[in-house]
Amino acid sequence: MAKKQKQFRPKARLPKGLRDLRADDVAARRAMLATIMQVYESYGFDPLETSAFEYADALGKFLPDADRPNEGVFSFQDDDDQWLSLRYDLTAPLARMVAENYETVPKPFRRYQTGQVWRNEKPGPGRFREFTQCDADSVGAPEMAADAELCAMVSDALEAVGIPRGDYVVRVNNRKILDGVLETIGVPAGEEGALQRMTVLRAIDKLDRLGADGVKLLLGDGRKDDSGDFTKGAGLNSDQADTVLAFVGAGDEDRSKVLDTLRGLVGTSETGLAGVAELEEIATLLDATGYGPDRILFDPAVVRGLGYYTGPVFEAELTFDVKDEKGNPIRFGSIGGGGRYDDLVSRFKGTPIPATGVSIGVDRLLAALEALGRNKTKSLTPPVVVLPLDKDRMADYQRMVFDLRNAGIRAEMYLGGAGMRAQLKYADKRGAPVAVIQGSDEFEKGEITLKDLVLGAELSKEIEDNTTWREDQPAQVSVSADGLIQAVKDMLARPHMQA
């Protein structure tokens, strides 16, 4: 007899670096995004959605870890042998869309977008391969007023979702100033010094994690971490590295003081002086609208990791501490940022097209709000559940559900195949506040039983005598079928339902 072949069953497993989100998480995210979008729209930005996939050459190679295998993106070849990639941010697809529709879109083109992005990176604690961003961009806007506006808008958005002033700061810098500093210390410009400049940029971007000493090693020959892995440095000598660190440490609440320090560091570099002049203009605009250094701070340590930034860059940081489950203090740090990318759309058009944008990391901001207990919507209101006890009367039960919904009550009918005990158990698992029950006897009498499941759960903890429970049934009432809607509303209005 032939041996029975074992049937293959795939293992249910979630890919590394990805997550499943349940109802409470989805509801909290949706509420937070609605608030952010309202702020964006108040500034005149319109919504846009772009494709999750782009041709790989359209996305470009701008990720900070571009020397990694697969260049940090998930890619595949389509049926005509062209490479497609999942978008790694929302800015590169925007640049493609504007270039493709340049003659028909208004300029400046102001849009906001919320969506998933993917990075082919090593996952770790708090670091995912799929995450959500919420962006706003102005394409075709050469004035520094566009950059100042984005900084102000992020500040307004953070306060709107529940981060009070003093618990965040938007840090601002300018890539041109860093280019000017590197020019003064002899780092080559153009293609010749591109790799060295990017290595310097990545070293500075690790300042919060490694401190000044660790960054200096990365600016020099390189650094060996605790595991023994060696990261090759930018190859600067000690004096060059000290100049870069002086630039990084020039931040101060006095914007004029920061600007004076930066002028001294860039010397006669035209690029560097242009960057300082742009920061000075942003300072004037922020002062005029009342956004002081308590909200928006000039900090040269902000350089941003992406390679397409060409001018002002900014980063929104949460400054408060909370404690983890073990009581250790943790800080959320950066929850978004952006900057000017005047060359990104120009890659497609061949003509100068200025642009600037900002992105909020939705998941990180949501985690911060949860840590502060400031989620405006913690969860969806559970539905009232109608129990279909008589299978021959499904249409009657369906009518009850529709009547409840039409009255503005979230409701559903149990659609499984089990009996009353299992149906009530289902309603409990759903967190239903009320169960609507009508068996054959009740139908004949024109009555419906409403079970207050919230009160019932509390009373069941207090009453140990089942006889007392059956006789009193304080959480259960009988109402006329015609009065169903008002009776459910009255039960939902009970004080313990509002807790």
Automatic annotation (TrEMBL):
Gene3D superfamilies: Anticodon-binding domain, Bira Bifunctional Protein, Domain 2. Residues 17-382 form the Aminoacyl-transfer RNA synthetases class-II family profile domain. It is an enzyme of class 6 (ligase). It comes from the Bacteria. Keywords: Aminoacyl-tRNA synthetase, ATP-binding, Cytoplasm, Ligase, Nucleotide-binding, Protein biosynthesis. One of its GO terms (biological process) is histidyl-tRNA aminoacylation. The keyword Protease does not apply. Pfam families: HGTP_anticodon, tRNA-synt_His. One of its GO terms (cellular component) is cytoplasm. GO terms for molecular function: ATP binding; histidine-tRNA ligase activity. It catalyses: tRNA(His) + L-histidine + ATP = L-histidyl-tRNA(His) + AMP + diphosphate + H(+). InterPro entries: aa-tRNA-synth_II, aa-tRNA-synth_II/BPL/LPL, Anticodon-bd, Anticodon-bd_dom_sf, His-tRNA-ligase, HisRS-like_core, HisRS/HisZ, HisRS_anticodon. Belongs to the class-II aminoacyl-tRNA synthetase family. HAMAP family: His_tRNA_synth. This is Histidine--tRNA ligase.
